[in-house]
Structures are given as structure tokens and as C-alpha cells.
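Please review this one:
***
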Amino acid sequence: MSEAPQNQTRVKALVAKIWEQKKHLTLNSVAAIERASSALIAGLLTPELRGEAAVESHKLAGALGTFGFPEGSRLSRLMEEILTREADLNREDGEHLAALVQQLRHELDSVSNS
């Protein structure tokens, strides 16, 4: 029975190691969404940038969930919902998206610094 906690510790350590190796990809995804929110606020969001940000938010939601960041995954899903809406997006949507990105960065920073 004492093997189970040891295995759990090993799995957590392995996930943490993989996270450190892949963290830069996550931050690149966040940056893509950030660019889209800035463009949307400025009224310059292209369909290509919107599509890229939607794909990145979808990838983030899955990856962050896998790496044990449920709040980051939740925030990413909210971003994806905004970006994949059928309706045209407006400045208010851009500001909401920017706020979500800021919350996500804060979440990732607080985890990285703990």
C-alpha cells in the first residue's frame, strides 16, 4: 500500500517536469490570444487572428487541465467561447477577453512562483 503514495509523487514530479519543458508553448498561446484581444479592442481583429486565438484557447483549455491548472483551463474555455461565437465581436468582447487573459497570466504566475 505504501507504493501508491510513492507512485503519486513520481507522477506529480513527472508532470511538473513536462510542464517546465512545455510552459513556453503555453505562454505563446496566451500571447496569441492577447494579440487578438488587443486587435479586437482597436477594431482590427482579422478572421485569421480570431481563428488562431480560438485554436490556441482550445489547446490551452486542454493542456492546462492536463497539467493540473483547473482555473487556467476554465479561463481558457471562457476565452474560446468568446472567440468561437457566431456573432461579430465588439470592443466590449475584446475588453472581456483581455481581462480573462490577465487573470490567466496571474494564475500561471502565482503557480510558477509557489
